[in-house]
Design goal:
Largest sheet: 4 strands, antiparallel
Strand content: 15-25%
Number of helices: 7
Helix content: 40-55%
CATH superfamily of the largest domain: Jelly Rolls
CATH topology of the largest domain: Jelly Rolls
CATH architecture of the largest domain: Sandwich
Number of domains: 2
Order of helices and strands: HEEEEEEHEEHHHEHHEE
CATH class of the largest domain: Mainly Beta
Number of strands: 11
Distance between the termini: 27 Å
Radius of gyration: 18 Å
Low-confidence stretches: none
Length: 203
Amino acid sequence: MINEDVLRQYHATIAALNKGDMLFQQGEIASTFYIVKSGKIKMSNYSDDGREFVQGYFTDGQSFGEPPFFSKAPYPASAIATERSDVWKISYDDFLRLLKNNFEIHLEVMNTLCSRLVYKSTMLSELAIEEAQHRLLTLLKYLAEHASIHTDGPVKIVLTRQQLADMTGLRVETVIRSIKSLEQKHQLEIDDDGKILWKKIPR
């Protein structure tokens, strides 16, 4: 999302994480802007009974944790590396200077933030009232529209069935059945590696 030379110009550094390492914990005050250089970061929190709910997975070039960063609020979820990862980190003051001096980056960050807030609002409604397959469709559509690699053809969804279940509050068995049903309806395809190819975005 942001050129690495620009990040270095504003004193960004790299946090090297192994699988399972925590970048920040739920409840910590946000003071750093993060962008994934490589790998995958999961943001999740837990209910009182210990059930995990995944807020999102973030991969190469994607930022995360923006709302608490800009409001200087506590993180509502923890960030954990799900594989070996390198993450750019830049301080609050340095990042605000970057945005002030680079309007196009400022606009792109705001567009990303607004898109995620709309997605969060939509998913809250889905979790409350919609059936399993509709929840999954909403998530797949969002992931396809915001894929980091733009293509005119089908978009590969890199998340596993379990990860999709974690993000929708569904059982993994329900996700598997729903994916099979959507495949039969020709709304998606499955490649040779078992990954979802999203080729039709319902309106």
